[in-house]
Design goal:
With about 220 residues, the chain is of the alpha+beta class. The chain is built from five helices and nine strands; from the N terminus they run βαββββαββααββα. Strands 1, 2, 3, 4, 5, 6, 7, 8 and 9 form a nine-stranded antiparallel sheet that branches. Keywords: Oxidoreductase.
């Protein structure tokens, strides 16, 4: 079982019983989503920005405009942290202070470089699109050179990471369990609704099979 070594950087201090440093566990959390939060410093002010991403092995890829100040900022500092979170349930306790949520979260720490080769950039953008919608890239028109030239692609290498997971019921005070107060868990999940075609030709086209497959698997 491969794990990330614990250090001051990635060690979970509060709720250590919910921490995991297992590489497979962390990768599963990353692969279950396509939106992350990237941290950076701008003008001495800490900022966190949501970004689309894709993972391949120990690399996470993000992209944006060549003028994106966040991407430029993390490239100048050579490093950043990235977090991914999934909300799985609302935990309603008998006491307001014991309300909680069930979740899966991963926090990554690592170094960044810019990907400049057009072939590599295109392959990475394919990964990002397919992380959002599996098998979608092959149905799109080829990317234009001017689009590629305006796009900055960043490779983030995971140097270390940690996960924190809560997947349990209510933890109330022992004396509160006899109170006439409803308590329990409301499971939460993200669902897909039926695809809505864009105006024009898509309105007269059949929805592609891979999109319908995604809808059926996530409705």
């Amino acid at each position: 079982m491969k794990t990330y070594p614990q250090s001051k950087t990635n060690r979970v201090k509060r709720g250590q019983n919910r921490a995991s440093y297992n590489v497979e566990t962390i990768n599963n959390i990353l692969d279950a989503g396509f939106l992350c939060n990237v941290g950076y410093i701008y003008d001495n002010y800490p900022i966190s920005i949501p970004m689309a991403y894709a993972r391949k092995e120990d690399k996470v890829y993000i992209h944006g405009s060549t003028g994106n100040r966040m991407l430029q900022g993390i490239l100048q500092s050579d490093k950043t942290s990235i977090s991914v979170n999934h909300l799985d349930g609302l935990v309603l306790a008998r006491s307001g202070l014991h309300h909680s949520v069930n979740y899966r979260s991963a926090t990554l720490f690592g170094t960044v470089i810019e990907i400049k080769n057009d072939v590599d950039k295109t392959e990475i953008l394919k990964l990002i699109v397919n992380q959002m919608m599996p098998n979608h890239w092959q149905s799109l028109r080829p990317m234009l050179q001017k689009e590629l030239d305006r796009t900055l692609v960043v490779e983030f290498t995971i140097d270390t990471a940690s996960a924190k997971i809560r997947a349990e019921g209510v933890n109330d005070e022992p004396e509160d369990y006899n109170l006439d107060v409803w308590a329990g868990v409301i499971p939460i999940k993200q669902v897909a609704e039926y695809p809505i075609a864009d105006k024009g030709k898509p309105e007269k086209m059949e929805v592609p099979k891979h999109i319908l497959d995604y809808y059926k698997a996530n409705q």
